[in-house]
Amino acid sequence: MTLPLGISRPHASMAHISKDEVGHYQGLREKLIDIREDRQRVGALAKENEEKYDKLREEKAYSIDVTMKECHKLERQRVMAELGKKHLAEKDAKKAEYRALVAEFKGHGETINKELEDIIQNEANVEREMKHSSKNLSLDDILAHMDKEADRKRMRKRRKTEGIPAGDRRIGDDIGLLSYLPDEIVRAAPFNNKAESGGHPLPLRVLFGKLEKGSRNVWAWLHNKPGSNRSPEVRLKVFSRTGQPEEPIALQDAMEKATPMPAFTYLKPQDGRFDRTHLSSVLRYYFILQKVELPYQWPISDVFVAELRVACKVAEANAKERKGAGTKEPEGSRDCRRGLAPGSTLAGTQSPMPSPEETPATSPEAFIEAYKLNITENERESQTFLGVQLEELEEEEDTLKNALKQAKEERKRLRTSVSERDLVLLQLGQDLAHTVSKRLLFDDSGEE
């Protein structure tokens, strides 16, 4: 065999090395073939795993899109059904409360109208009886009736004054002056003292007057300091027309700004101002007549008795002044002079009783006129009392209207609350679905 130019025949040792290299090469070639076969096998397994993953992902996506949404939908429907039942129950309760308030309001209105009709009917009947009886009454009958009526008034005043604790007798012979303080027309009401602090307010208040601006009232109440055995302190507070407490008011401001009630009218001169001491003593006197329970016996000092006596004399002087000016005299003021004891300090101020010879003859017409005047005054007293009751019913009516308004606002608030709950539940469902989706994606990424 002829070799190409430049190539010599290999040496015998070189031939031996070539055989070894060829064997090594052949081994590497076989190993490469095995590696390629392993790669093909691994690729097939990877493709199979990818197909399984795609199938599993499709199944989970269907579970999220359909199953979870259906579960959330059923849960929302269940919660909404429960909220709807609760809302209907609350709505029915509010409607029942509203109907009860309306019925009570109508009942009060019917009661007021019936009382007014009864008053008008009684007034007409009295006038008719007066006209009929004036023709048949004799002079002795008229005199006996007037004496009986005077005795009845004196007994009524005596029953009022006998309810005063120890200390009323210290007024002495001037006890009749108390009739110038018309305590029977004092308006009292319960007082909720839970909001007060720094003492123990007593659960009773007395109406002093009305403020000129607005429809607010000034009420007096008693404040008892803890651990004190002294007389309770009289304080004043402004209340709304519906009976809600607002802010305290000083006694001096109340005397200047408020229009006093009839029970305090004669303490104030026509062209003057209240006296602070007189007003305080009369307020305490009215509270005593209300029989307010104290943890100890009510201390009545000689100073209080003296101040009350002076206040009664001031009321008497103002009543006489108004009577001279043609103003209506306070009820009971004519009887108080008859009720004075013979040794009273005021006995000297009374005009001397005329002797029988000096007494002028009185005609039956004059006694009939006096009888009519007496009945008219009784009717005025009844109208005053009914007017006070009517005002109280009007205040109660305002309170009921306020309660109805609050019920409507509460019903509106409940509706708004239910709507807000619906929005919150919807948002909660969306957040839950979003959270589940994120968790599933996180689990999938962890498996990879």
From TrEMBL:
Taxonomy, superkingdom: Eukaryota
Residue spans of biased composition, Basic and acidic residues class: 319-338
Spans annotated as Disordered: 319-362
Alphabetized UniProt keyword annotations: Coiled coil
Coiled coil ranges: 386-417
Record has Coiled coil as a keyword: yes
Designated name of the protein: Uncharacterized protein
Organism: Didymella pomorum
